[in-house]
Recover the amino acids of this structure.
């Protein structure tokens, strides 16, 4: 069966996100002052061939742990869609 | 009221995503061959001070249209959380 995975990788809350900070300041110069706490991460979509949702999630987790995310600076969340 | 927005910005389906392609090939060399169609985009979280969910969404949309996404190459999706 084919599954689709939505992976969100964000910088850890404890860390400064300079890219987000820069975007926030630019938005303020555009008079969008109501926007705060901008944080920028990655969104990855992929399809997985697996026998079950659990197997698809395991493969996806392996991909994250082995390659996609940096545990020192980031956190990740996986959503598997049928 | 404070609202949290989750914005996902992805490369258009019609376009090649070289970053995703490179990641997919690297995953295959790590024996994760079940993974296909890798596409990499951005995930942005931000908080918005607004009087209603509709107003928060309008501000968020303005930020996307004015700055965060490139209509030639990308598509975006906004989720506003209470």
């Amino acid at each position: 069966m084919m599954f689709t995975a939505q992976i969100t990788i964000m910088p850890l809350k404890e860390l400064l996100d300079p890219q987000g900070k820069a975007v926030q300041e630019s938005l303020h110069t555009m008079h969008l002052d109501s926007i705060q706490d901008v944080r920028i991460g990655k969104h990855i979509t992929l399809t997985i061939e697996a026998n079950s949702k659990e197997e698809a999630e395991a493969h996806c987790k392996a991909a994250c742990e082995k390659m996609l995310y940096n545990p020192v600076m980031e956190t990740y969340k996986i959503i598997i869609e049928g």
In short: Chain B touches chain A through 34 residues (CB under 8 Å). The mean pLDDT of chain B is 96.
